[in-house]
Fold this protein.
Amino acid sequence: MQDFRCKVLSIERVKERGRNSYLIIRLKKPEGFKFSAGQYVLLAHPGLRQEKNSAELLFRPYSVASSPYMEFLEFCIAVKYSGGLTEFLEKNLRVGGELVMRGPFGEIIPFREHEKIVFVVTGAGIAPAISVLRDLCLEGMSKPVQLFYGFPTCEHFLYRAELEKCSSDNKCFSVYAAANEEGGCCWRGVCGYIQPTLEEAGLRDEKAHYYLCGSSGSLKAMRVALRRMGIKKERIHFIAG
Ligand SMILES: Cc1cc2nc3c(=O)[nH]c(=O)nc-3n(C[C@H](O)[C@H](O)[C@H](O)COP(=O)(O)OP(=O)(O)OC[C@H]3O[C@@H](n4cnc5c(N)ncnc54)[C@H](O)[C@@H]3O)c2cc1C
């Protein structure tokens, strides 16, 4: 498979009190590169190898957060301070620099086939959801769509302005946001975890498909909450992220 070298167009750093940092990175889309919402690519920095003397770059998978309609590629990356790629990117990535990209991979989310879609995401798990939402907003949203989004504090409410606009432009789109830090309530906000919000919203719906994306711990809790509400297994889908 071909590797693309993509120019870094912009980097937005979301950082709050030294923990839970995110990078929102925009790359120039290579000529002829095609993907669908929900897919991921492998990214590497040309300056970071798997091991010191290895020829292989350290690739990690990332969901594409932009819509295929957009002229750039966007990624929403949670920084892990483990000496891996994300810490390296936080310290070394500059606008005008380059990342190496391979892909796309993974399943396409068949959102156009569903009568109703519910996203339940935490942290950087918003990436594949915002890609689909951007597609839906650009195409004109004609079916019910709900987003349940959990994050550590209000400062980590990624894409807030865009989601706010999408929600005010589209009556069939609603966002439920929960900040799990005490006193971290925000827009239509709830304090605590996102699972109780799911139950309070009473969203049990035979026609809906539920897409879950987040850390492994939060995914398990979200799946348990949905199953407790009586949602059938075959309606619950996991998106890697
Ligand atoms: C299909 C797919 C899509 C993804 N999409 C996204 C996305 O859109 N956004 C995003 O932020 N992430 C995404 N990820 C996760 C991403 O690929 C990386 O795993 C993540 O960015 C961490 O990479 P890293 O090299 O910085 O960290 P690594 O160094 O690989 O560390 C990863 C984790 O392991 C832990 N760890 C590392 N070393 C040790 C050790 N010695 N002992 C114990 N724990 C250790 C770290 O604390 C960290 O939590 C996706 C993953 C998949 C599979």
Q: What stands out?
A: The mean pLDDT is 88.
